[in-house]
UniProtKB/TrEMBL annotation, chain A:
Phylogenetic lineage: Bacteria, Pseudomonadati, Pseudomonadota, Alphaproteobacteria, Hyphomicrobiales
Acyltransferase is among the record's keywords: no
Provenance organism: Shinella yambaruensis
Name this polypeptide is given: Arginine ABC transporter ATP-binding protein
PROSITE patterns for this protein: ABC_TRANSPORTER_1, ABC_TRANSPORTER_2
Keyword Cytoplasm: no
Coiled-coil regions listed: none
Gene Ontology molecular functions: ATP binding
Top-level lineage group: Bacteria
Keywords from the named record: ATP-binding, Cell membrane, Membrane, Nucleotide-binding, Transport
UniProtKB/TrEMBL annotation, chain B:
Protein name per UniProt: Amino acid ABC transporter permease
Domain of life: Bacteria
InterPro entries tied to this protein: AA_ABC_transptr_permease_3TM, ArtM/GltK/GlnP/TcyL/YhdX-like, MetI-like, MetI-like_sf
Residue ranges of domain ABC transmembrane type-1 in the record: 66-273
Residue intervals passing through the bilayer: 22-42, 62-89, 101-122, 251-272
Record-stated family: Belongs to the binding-protein-dependent transport system permease family. HisMQ subfamily.
Membrane topology designation: Multi-pass membrane protein
Pfam families: BPD_transp_1
Compartments, record wording: Cell inner membrane; Cell membrane
Keyword annotations of the record: Amino-acid transport, Cell membrane, Membrane, Transmembrane, Transmembrane helix, Transport
């Protein structure tokens, strides 16, 4: 369902990130088209999570540029000078990029429903009644309607993650970023979260997913990126990368993860 | 090895006899005797003058002193916590200036005894005869007050108690804020919240839950610390009792009146503290079912929506 014509929704150019002397990202270029699902795989420590966290400036990149709808993220032009954005300016851009974390990070002092309505009411000034109405639709979509009034501590990991997805969707983002959304889950709970993500992809949501779930990447992704050592080693259609890898590092990684599966 | 008797019952029909706790018995008897002796002194010692104690227990001066003690405790805690929250946020700020000012305040007010502070604040006029708002370093003054009019025993007492509390509260609240998972602020940030929104809606509500038990403890300490204000001749519970016995020389019974009232108040506060703590512990778990128990409401959490 990828659109090949037109500007990409999200564009990353020569992205670099260092922590002290350690260079985690060494020049990443990616383009994500509207409606595309991009999966990023690679060994741990390859920089894929850092890459995702740079997209919405949870980590400040050391170099390079990110564009959302052609507009630079985290910085702004004024004449021919480039200025850093303040936290609060940045928060306006972050609204357009939903993020789902490995550790869910639901607000523990709020019920599932309260988690979902919090940001729309607080940030977007949506009337409470409207926010609740929309939240219930979202919670139904992720199969959490019956548990709307439960606190996170009363929910299983899979239920928490599905509520967290609804919470992100409530801000009506242009793109959803998933940072290993099923890695903290018990094996039997992985499926329910992946099913929600599949449905989201079918509905045309633009998604960037860092994952270890090769099956999901193969079936759902329009574009697969293999990262190692802070660079993109190989990218393309999932079927090509998974079945006909061009690089030794890709082959070695696939041999390892597919042997486990 | 004891010899096996011929008709021993089955092991399944018997409950084994417990190991004797001889230490408990000996210690228990000694302590019980001491307790009886202590009670006997309390009851039979004529110097206790229980009749006088009863007479003054609900005396008007004593009750108004009790009110003053409660007022001081309440104001000092509210003011101390408010300053403490600001100090904690400054301490965690990225700005070196904010960090240092906060550190300096905490260092000073935790280091100087509240009694010394109160006397010092009360005598502030000796240092600064006039307090004014204006442009510093010799600029024009917009407003100015005579320090002696501004500083009363009451305001000096509040400052001494509240500033001391603010230093302790700041450290507790800072620890509380730091105990909130980083993921919480990241999740809030990705939802587009501003720094202030994150702090107010996500971080502080969680930090305060963590900090409530030590704050309860501090409130109990504060209640007792207020007795220091008697040096400023402020009529709190202790000073009211002192004023009576200065006149009647019934020192012991009036100190007993004060003691009993302090114990009553700390007992009430302890019960409240335990109830709040219990409530906080069970709240996350209780969630879906309506709140019940001692308090028919949920702390912090909003009432559930009927959808």
């Amino acid at each position: 369902m990828s659109q090949t014509n037109g500007e990409p929704l999200l564009k990353v150019e020569r992205l670099r990130k260092s922590f002290g002397a350690h260079e985690v990202l060494r020049g990443i270029d990616v383009a994500v088209m509207r409606g595309d699902v991009t999966c990023i795989v690679g060994p741990s420590g390859s920089g894929k999570s850092t890459f995702l966290r740079c997209l919405n400036y949870l980590e400040k990149p050391t170099g390079g540029a990110i564009f959302l709808h052609g507009e630079p993220v985290g910085v702004r032009w004024k004449g021919d000078k480039l200025y850093e954005m303040s936290f609060n300016e940045l928060s306006r851009q972050r609204q357009r990029m939903g993020m789902v974390f490995q550790g869910f990070h639901l607000f523990p002092h709020k019920t599932a429903l309260e988690n979902v309505i919090e940001a729309p009411i607080l940030v977007k000034r949506v009337p409470r009644a409207t926010a609740i109405e929309e939240a219930m639709v979202l919670l139904e979509r992720v199969g959490m309607k019956e548990r709307a009034h439960y606190y996170p501590a009363q929910l299983s990991g899979g239920q928490q993650q599905r509520a967290a997805i609804a919470r992100s969707l409530a801000m009506k983002p242009d793109v959803m970023l998933f940072d290993e959304p099923t890695s903290a889950l018990d094996p039997e709970l992985v499926g329910e979260v992946l099913a929600v993500m599949r449905k989201l992809a079918d509905d045309g949501m633009t998604m960037v997913v860092v994952t270890h779930e090769m099956g999901f990447a193969r079936d759902v992704a329009d574009h697969l990126i293999f990262m190692d050592g802070g660079v993109i080693v190989e990218q393309g259609r999932p079927v090509d990368v998974l079945t006909r890898p061009q690089h030794d590092r890709t082959r070695a990684f696939l041999a390892r993860v597919l042997a486990d599966a | 090895m004891s010899e096996e008797p011929p008709h021993r019952p089955s092991i399944h029909d018997l409950k084994p006899i417990a190991v004797p706790k001889i230490g408990h018995w000996i210690g228990g008897v000694v302590l019980a005797v001491l307790a009886v002796v202590f009670l006997q002194v309390l009851v039979t010692n004529k110097n206790m003058q229980w009749a006088v104690v009863a007479e003054y227990m609900f005396n008007r001066a004593i009750l108004s002193g009790l009110g003053m003690t409660l007022l001081l405790t309440f104001l000092a805690m509210v003011l101390g916590l408010a300053i403490g929250v600001v100090l904690a946020i400054m301490r965690l700020s990225a700005s070196r200036v904010f960090q240092s000012v906060s550190w300096g305040w905490i260092w000073f007010f935790r280091g100087v005894p509240p009694l010394v502070q109160m006397i010092f604040w009360y005598n502030l006029a000796l240092l600064l005869p006039e307090i004014s708002i204006g442009i510093p370093f010799g600029g024009p003054k917009l407003l100015s007050w005579n320090t002696n009019q501004l500083i009363t025993p009451f305001s000096a007492a509040i400052m001494g108690l509240a500033f001391t509390e603010s230093a302790y509260a700041a450290e507790m609240i800072r620890a509380g804020i730091q105990a909130v998972n980083v993921g919480q602020t990241e999740a809030a940030a990705t939802l587009g919240m501003t720094r202030a929104q994150m702090l107010r809606r996500i971080v502080l509500p969680q930090a305060l839950r963590i900090v409530i038990p030590p704050i309860g403890n501090d409130t109990i300490s504060m209640l007792k610390f207020t007795s220091l204000v008697s040096v400023l001749a402020l009529p709190d519970l202790l000073y009211s009792a002192q004023m009576v016995y200065a006149r009647t020389y019934q020192t012991v019974p009036l100190l007993l009146v004060a003691t009993i009232w302090y114990l009553v108040l700390t007992t009430i506060l302890t019960v409240v503290e335990h109830a709040v703590e219990h409530r906080l512990k069970s709240e996350h778990r209780a969630g879906a079912t309506k709140a019940g128990g001692i308090f028919p409401f949920r702390l912090f959490a909003r009432q559930q929506e009927a959808v």
